[in-house]
Every structure is written in C-alpha cells, then in structure tokens.
Write a structure and sequence with these properties.
The complex is a heterotrimer of chains A (105), B (629) and C (207). Helix content of chain A is 74%, strand content 0%. With 105 residues, chain A is mostly helical. With 207 residues, chain C is mainly α. Among the domains of chain C are: 1-76, NADH-ubiquinone/plastoquinone oxidoreductase chain 6, subunit NuoJ (Four Helix Bundle (Hemerythrin (Met), subunit A), Up-down Bundle); 125-155. The N and C termini of chain C lie far apart (110 Å). Classes of the chains: A mainly alpha (105), B mainly alpha (629), C mainly alpha (207). Chains in contact: A-B, A-C, B-C.
Chain lengths: 105, 629, 207
C-alpha cells in the first residue's frame, strides 16, 4: 500500500480540524492551549510533508520555526493562564470578556 | 537694469513677509522702517528705471525678466515673467511713488493703532500685488495680482474689524468685485480658447489676424473683460462697493480706493486695447458705462455729507472719465487722466485724513468749517488737490487731462456729441461739488475745535503731492496752445494714437465751453454755500427737492435695488432650504454608519470562541469560493 | 514504510480525538504525548529523522512538561473534571464540530484535485537542513531568537503575582460600584443621624 503526498496532507488536515474543534468547544483555557498545540503540530506536519514531496530541506526548516513559535506561545500562554487563574479564580474563557464592546445607544 | 525689475515687487513682498511673520514682536519704529522703507526702495528703483527708460529706450520697447516657469501643462505654458513697457512704467511709477508717500504718511497716521504691523503687512502685500498686476507679462499672472489686490482691499477695508459695519463693507466690496472677477476669468478662458495663449504680447500680435472686426466672439471677450474692469473700477452696475469701502483707514482709501487699485480696470482695457479696437460694440459700451457712471456718481457726490464719501463718489466719477476716454479711443488721454488723478485724489484723501484726525474723527463736513486758518498747510494742499479735481484752468493738472478727454469725446474716432454732453455736464457737477467741499470744510465758522495737529511726516507727503497735482499736467498741453505732448508720446509707444474724426469744430471752442462750465460750477458752489446759504435752506423746505436729494444721497438707490433684486430672493431661497436637503443625505450616511457600528458591536462580544468561529466561517467562505472556481 | 505511516496516522488521529474529549486535564495531556509520539513516527516514515527527534524532545518533552507543571500548580483535579463534564454538553460542541467537518471535507476535496504524486521516502540529510537553516534562513533564525527572547521575558513578566491590577480605562469602571456603595452608606449614615437628632432635640425643647 503506497502512500502519496495527498494522504499525508489529509492526515494533517484531519489533525488540524480536530484541534480546531477543541478550540471551539472547550471552555477551559488549558484545553484551548492544548488544542492550539495540536493545530500547530498539524501545520508543521503539512510543512514537512510538502518539503519531502520535493525532496527539499525547507519544509523541515519551517517545522523548526513552527516549533520555536509554539514554544514561545506556550510559555506566554501558560503565564497568562496562571495570571488568569490568580485574578478570576477560574479558567473559564467565557468569563474573560473585558474587551467586550459596549453597544452604543 | 533689465535683471533688476523683479526687485521692484520683491521689496514690498519682502516687507510683507517680515511683517507678517515676525511683525508682532517688532517695536513700532522697526515696523515703520520695514513697511515704508521697502516701498521707498521700490520707488527709488522705479525712478532709476524710468530715467534709463526715457534716456535709452530698450530695443523692443520693454524690459522683460523671466523668473521661472510657472505652469506648464499640455499646450499651455505660463512663465512668471515681468514686463515693463511704457504703459506699465506709468502705472509702476504711480504705484510705487504715490505708494511710498502714502506709506510715509501712514507711519505717522497709524502711530496710535495697535495693529501697526498688520496694517503695514497688508499695505506692502497690496503694493506687491498691484505691481504684479501691472508688470505681468501674461494675463494669468495679471489675474494673480488682480485677485491679490482684491484680497488686500478686503483686508484693509475691514482693518478695524471690531466694528461690524466695517466687516460688512469689506464683504460687500469683496462680493461685488467678485462678480466682475468671475466675468473676467471667463473672458480669459475664452481668450485662451481662441488664441491658445495668455501671454500679452502674443495676444496683441495674434488678435488682429485671428479675430474678425466686430465678430461676436471678439465682442463677447471684450465685454467680459470690460465687466472685470467695471467690478474692480467701480463702474456703473457694480459701483456700490466703493463708497462703503471708505470704512478703511484714510491712507488705504488714498492708495487703494483712489490712486491705484480702482484704476486696474483702466489698465486692463488699455492693455487689451487691440481686442477692444476689434469690437466697436465693446468700445461703445465702455464709453457709455464711463459716461453714465461719471454723471451718476457726480450727482451722488453733490449731496453727500461724509467727506470721504464725497471723495469716493468723485473717484467713481473720475474713473468714469477714464472709461469714457478709453471707449472713444483716446487711450493716452485715459492714462494721462489716471496719472494726474492718482496724485490729486491721493492728496485729497490724505488731507481729508488729516482733517478727520484733527477733529476727533469727525466725518460730517457740516460739522467742520473754518479750518482755513487752523490748518493752513492742509488747506493749501487740499486746495491744490481740489483745483485739480475741479479742473481749474491752466494751474492744475486735472485741467490738462480732463480737457483732453472732453475734446476727444467729441473728436475722436468713437466720440459723439452725446458722450461729450455727458462729460461736460460731469465737469460742471465736479466743479460744483468740489467748491462745496472746500467751502464747507475750510471756510465759514469753526464748528468743531481742532484737537491735534498733523505731524511733519504727514504734511511732507501732502506738500509733495500738492506740487505734483499742480505740475503733473504740464507734460501735456492742448495742441492749440503749446506743442508739448511728452506723456502721450511716451504712452503711444504702446497704445495706438487717437484717430480724429473730420469736420470737427475748432478745439478752442470746446476748451472755452469747458472752462466756462467749470468756473460756473465753482461759482455756484461758492454762491450757494458761502454767499447765500439761505437759498439752500429755502430749497430744503420743498419736498421734491428733499426727495431728489435723498435719492442722490443713497447713491441712486442702487443698494436698495440690489437688495430687492438679488439679496432678498437669495435669502428667500436659502430660507426654503432651511432643513438643508443635501445635508440630510450626509446625515443619513452618518446615521447609517452609526447603525452599522451598532450591529457590528454585537459581534465584538469579548468571547474568544466567537472570534475563532468568525475566522473559521471566513476560511470556509474562501475555500468554498475556491471549490467552485 | 507506508504501513508504518498508516499505523502512526491512525494512532495520531485517535489519540488526538481522545485529547479533545477528555474531562481530566492530565488524561488529555497523556493522550497528547501519545499523539506527539505518533507524529514523530509519521515524520520518521516520511524520512525526516531530525524533525522526528525534535518532535519527541520539544513537543512530547518540554511543552508537555510545561503544561503538566501548570496543571499541577493549579491543582486541576476531580473538580475540574466535573466542571468540564458540565461544560461539554452536546449543544455546545455539535455546531462547531459540524463547521469543522465542513472545513475538513472542503480541504479533502481540494487536496484530491491536485495530481497524485507518490511520496519519495528519501531522507533529506540533516547536513542539508543545517546548511539551509544557517545560510538562506539565517535572518529567520535571528527572528525566531527574538521571538523566544520575547516569550521568555513576557512569560516572566506576566506570571508575576500581583494584586488585581487593572488597566486605567477599566479602573474607573471597577471603582464605580464601590464608590457608589461608599456614597450610599455615607448618605444612609447621614440620614440616620439626622433622623436621630431631631428626636433627641425635641425633648430638649419641651423642657
């Protein structure tokens, strides 16, 4: 059973969609962060697959950058989680609506 | 010298810039030095230039200097180029020389005013704009100067802007001259459409071959230019702004509303004489406008009581003479009258300024009187100016210029006995109201005590101008008395010589009649206001006389007429549109976008998942598009 | 290799599905580790061993450890699981899931439009990756360095425990009710004193 580039990309797409579902359905910030990690990982997979499709190193390099980005993101994100937990005593994303626009009269 | 002519307007402009930018910080003597000094420097330059011009005229009859290319689009190009020929030279001389004297006078006259710098800045800007107007090589640059002097006139009429009446006068002057300016702009467009150029020498060269004699397009252009001149020079339908423009300080009235700006129309027509010559109708219209204006304004001047308004109406009347001369084809006579008029009218205004200042800002001549002994120097100079205005034979410059005009209105190519009748009756009226003015102000008993006496700096310009009002006419004598015509020889380098009709009675007859009528006018003024003052009193009992007097006093009711015909319908129309239909559209736009904002504000509800869903829907939309392409 | 790929893919998808459906955060994290390891397997089967190792070290190692630290710090245990169970009702997840399904189908359709190319499983040597990284992408490497630096500084700054600190725009809002409450109590006190005082005065007058 050979596999081709489309198969790999479809796997990446499925993982991405699953991550998106996680972001959209979960209310807990930790779960949202985890789902974002899944999505980033899926994007990395797409990069690597595309790179390998042409036998080029660029896809892998992009994966490295995605990795760096994910590391930075997760560190800042977790710091925010701590701070949010400290201030709101909750991790419910729906409680954090301070940037809500007031509807003008 | 050729490269220095740009310096003439540059000096006043420099003065304007200095005073405009840092004038508030400067002490008054500095402001005076800058304001008057720059104009005096320009006057000295013009004197040097004039001497050179007369001694060794340039080859092509003009000094030109190109500063830079101003506009260049498509077929149209326009340079910032100055050009001084004989006609411009006369105007430049008058502007800078009279301007310098008036600036010197203002140094003392405006001493107490708190906006000293603003006054001199505006005056300098005016001198600059006026110089641009008369030195312009093309009509676009001329138009720049034309609008510039209009702006300065507005600024200076409304100089004492705390009084609402002054602001109204300034607005009125601006609006009414705008009518003429618009007509002139359309005329310039047509001229450009016909000839493809706005450069004055090119127009003058190309017109005779391009235009048909008396063709409708020529007439249209000439009439539009005439309308521009009528607005600026306060001629008949558009004359109502000038009497109100006396709200400005006296030096302003002297410089702008007597000597220079109001004669810009005369300059324009003289400059475009080729176009006018090609259109007999426009020439006739010019003559008729001038003739009617001089009578209408003269009658109004007879009954005014405000000293400056009398002078304003007399200015309108004298410019009427110039238009009359232009209309009959007596080009050089018109310019000559401008030349003498600038001196004596500036003198009269400056002297009137001294009188008003000395009498606690009293404008009414019937509350003056007996100033002959109190202000002897002012009396003597005023008398010199008044003699010139009344065209007192032989000893005043006004006589020489007006006599020439009157002679040509009958004898020149476009002249006719009717026009001559208009002119000669104007001469009678002028003599009468001048005599009335002098007698009421300076003779009789003193009614208001003299509080201040003029400073030396104010009397010196008066004396110089008085001397000039007497001697300026000697450069041109009637042909039958002395063959001396220096002025017309100079001007006729640019303007065509006046063509005489045949079968004209001898010139001496006209001179005799003119002298006789002038003396009659002076004597009747003397008789009515000095010898037998009760005669006027008797007349004033009669209602018909009072009605006529009031009619003339209101300037023939032109203001009321315009108010009913133009202002009231306009106000009515604006009243109809009180709710402002077009604003409603804009308001609708505003409230519509506010409503959209309200709707979209619901989307910004602070929920992260909502935002992510929004992104997702957007991505889906794009992908769906991708699917079906 | 294809077999390896398919097995790893199935494992990855299933474990990811488990991640997003768990109530206990720690369970989700453990499934996430499985998902990452399966992903590393996929990379290996694609011929990218370097990336596979990085995936294990960084994702399955560092990032997961960070997350677990936080879960432990905040003590997210049974209470959280109960909370999650309440939150995760079908009415909250059906709609978004359908949207994502639509997205997925569209992606798949679009992917099948492009021509099929068999995957060459020819490993790109690590040397080539390194040379490209420090030659063509050197600026991007620098930028990634900035990003990490900013991440560190940001994390250190944000996670400092302070009193509830509000932006100055929000301060007024927060203080508003408090102040109103203070005022109200003041007014009430005043009223009560006023109400009391006359009562006290009256007897004085009478005497």
């Amino acid at each position: 059973m050979p596999f081709n580039s489309q198969t790999v990309l479809i796997v990446a797409a499925i993982l991405f969609a699953l991550g998106l579902v996680g972001v959209l359905t979960r209310k807990n910030i930790i779960f949202i962060l985890i789902s974002v990690e899944i999505m980033l990982n899926a994007a990395g997979l797409a990069f690597v697959a595309a790179g390998m499709r042409w036998g080029q190193p660029d896809g892998q390099i992009m994966f490295l950058f995605v990795l760096a980005m994910a590391a930075a993101e997760v560190s800042v994100g977790l710091a925010l989680v701590l701070q949010a937990h400290h201030q709101y005593r909750s991790l419910d994303i729906d409680q954090m609506k301070a940037l809500k626009d007031e509807v003008p009269g | 010298m050729n490269n220095l002519i740009a310096l003439i307007p540059a000096f006043p402009f420099l003065g304007f810039l200095l005073l405009f930018l840092i004038g508030r910080q400067l002490p008054k003597p500095f402001i005076a030095w800058i304001g008057a000094g720059t104009v005096c420097a320009a006057a000295v330059l013009v004197l040097l230039l004039g001497i050179q011009f007369l001694q060794a005229p340039p080859a092509d009859g003009a000094y030109t200097q190109t500063l830079w290319q101003w506009l260049s689009t498509g077929h149209f190009s326009c340079a910032f180029r100055f050009r001084i020929d004989a006609l411009s030279l006369v105007f430049v001389f008058v502007i800078t020389f009279v301007g310098a004297l008036i600036h010197l006078y203002s140094v003392a006259f405006m001493k107490e005013d708190r906006d000293y710098a603003r006054f001199f800045a505006s005056m300098n800007l005016f001198v600059f704009a006026m110089l641009v107007l008369v030195m312009a090589d093309n009509l676009l640059l001329l138009y720049l100067g034309w609008e510039g002097v209009g702006l300065c006139s507005y600024l200076l009429i409304g100089f004492w802007y705390e009084t609402p009446a002054n602001c109204r006068a300034a607005n009125k002057a601006f609006y009414i001259t705008r009518i003429g300016d618009t007509a002139m702009a359309i005329g310039l467009f047509l001229l450009f459409k016909e000839l493809g150029t706005l450069t004055i020498p090119d127009i003058l060269n190309a017109s005779p071959t391009h235009f048909q004699q008396g063709a409708s397009n020529t007439t249209l252009i000439a009439l539009l230019l005439l309308a521009g001149g009528m607005g600026k020079s306060a001629q008949l339908p558009l004359q109502t702004w000038l009497p109100d423009a006396m709200a400005g300080p006296s030096p302003v009235s002297a410089l702008i509303h007597a000597a220079t700006m109001v004669t810009a129309g005369v300059y324009l027509i003289a400059r475009m004489h080729v176009v006018f010559q090609l259109s007999p109708l426009a020439m006739a219209a010019t003559a008729v406008v001038g003739g009617l204006t001089l009578l209408v304004a003269g009658f109004s001047a007879m009954v005014q009581t405000d000293i400056k308004r009398i002078l304003a109406y007399s200015t309108i009347s004298q410019i009427g003479y110039m238009f009359l001369a232009l209309g009959v084809g007596a080009w050089s006579a018109a310019i000559f009258h401008f030349f003498t008029h600038a001196f004596f009218k500036a003198l009269l205004f400056l002297a009137a300024g001294v009188v008003i200042e000395s009498l606690h800002h009293e404008h009414n001549i019937f509350r003056m009187g007996g100033l002959k002994n109190r202000l002897p120097l002012v009396f003597k100079t005023f008398l010199a100016g008044a003699a010139a205005l009344a065209a007192l034979p032989f000893v005043s410059s006004g006589f020489y210029s007006k006599d020439q005009i009157l002679w040509y209105t009958w004898s020149a190519g476009g002249g006719s006995p009717v026009l001559w009748m208009l002119g000669i009756s104007g001469a009678l009226i002028t003599a009468f109201y001048t005599a009335r003015l002098v007698i009421v102000v300076f003779y009789g008993e003193m009614k208001t005590p003299v509080s201040t006496y003029p400073a030396k700096l104010m009397t010196v310009p008066l004396v110089i101008l008085a001397v000039l009002s007497v001697v300026a006419g000697f450069v041109e004598w009637p042909h039958n008395i002395l063959h001396l015509s220096l002025f017309s020889e100079l001007v006729q380098k640019v303007l065509p010589a006046t063509i005489l009709r045949t079968g004209i009675p001898s010139e001496i007859v006209f001179q005799g009649i003119a002298i006789l009528l002038t003396l009659t006018g002076i004597y009747s003024g003397y008789y009515l206001y000095y010898r037998n003052t009760h005669v006027i009193g008797q007349w004033q009992q009669k209602p018909a006389f009072v009605a006529v007097r009031n009619f003339f006093f209101s300037g023939w009711g032109f203001d009321r007429l315009y108010n009913t015909v133009f202002v009231k319908p306009f106000v009515w129309m604006t009243d109809l549109n009180k709710t402002d239909f077009f604003d409603q559209i804009n308001k609708g736009l505003a409230s519509g976008s506010r409503q959209l904002n309200r709707w979209f504000s619901y989307s910004q509800n602070g929920s992260l998942r909502w935002y992510v869903a929004g992104v997702l829907v957007g991505v889906l939309f794009i992908l769906t598009l991708q699917l079906f392409v | 290799m294809p077999v390896l790929f398919y097995i790893a893919s199935v494992v990855a998808i299933i474990s990811t599905l488990m991640v997003i459906t768990r109530y206990q955060p720690i369970h989700a994290l453990l499934y996430l580790v499985v998902s990452f390891l399966a992903m590393a397997m996929i990379f290996l089967s694609l011929g990218a061993p370097f990336v596979a190792i990085l995936e294990i070290i960084l994702y399955a190692g560092a990032i997961i450890v960070l997350l677990i630290f936080v879960v432990m710090m905040l003590n997210l245990g049974k209470d959280t699981a109960l909370q999650e169970r309440q939150w995760l009702q079908p009415k909250t997840w059906v709609g978004p899931s359908i949207l994502c399904l639509v997205l997925l189908t569209e992606l798949v359709i679009l992917l099948f439009r492009s021509p099929e190319v068999p995957m060459q499983v020819k490993p790109v040597p690590m040397r080539a990756v390194s040379i490209a990284l420090y030659k063509e992408y050197v600026i991007a490497v620098e930028l990634a360095g900035f990003l990490l630096m900013a991440g560190i500084v940001g994390a250190a700054h944000i996670s400092k425990h302070r009193k509830k600190h509000l932006h100055r725009f929000l301060q007024e809002e927060a203080k508003g009710p408090q102040r109103r409450a203070e005022k109200l109590t003041m007014i009430r006190e005043k009223e009560s004193t006023e109400a009391v005082l006359p009562a006290e005065k009256k007897p004085v007058k009478k005497t």
